[in-house]
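Pair request: fold both.
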Amino acid sequence: MTRLIFTFLFSFCLSLLVSGWVTFINLGLVSDFLNYWMIAFINAWPAAFCAAFILTKPVSNITAYITTKLRFS
């Protein structure tokens, strides 16, 4: 359950920030910016959730491996 809650919150925050940034870069600060941002966010969040859920453990393992190798080199 902890993993699901973490993934939910992490993907929400990441999708919100990245979709806002990319929308701003593509459109600038147009009058209906928030509408475009929310559409981008709604489309991005499911993909971010799946990616975060699938990749959290492998990335954590790779990070542990790299830091272990760097520590003992």
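--- second member of the pair ---
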Amino acid sequence: MGDELADRPLTEPHPSRLPPQHPGRAAILAAHAAALAAGEAGYLDPDTGLFVLSAGFLARRGTCCGRGCRHCPYLAD
């Protein structure tokens, strides 16, 4: 957990947080991309209905909270 952004686009979550084989990955990434484009803090998860923070919001915070966020932009590859 550091304060430096990981070397990957904000649109791409770390594979440990959203594996490529996740059955809802395409819908999740689409919802996340829409939130990023709109500058919103997050989106409603298409599977669970829970609010998920976007990588953009988390990056603007400036530090990792250590809570295992799906789109954590600080989690190193």
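Observation on the second member. Strands lie at 42-44, 51-53.
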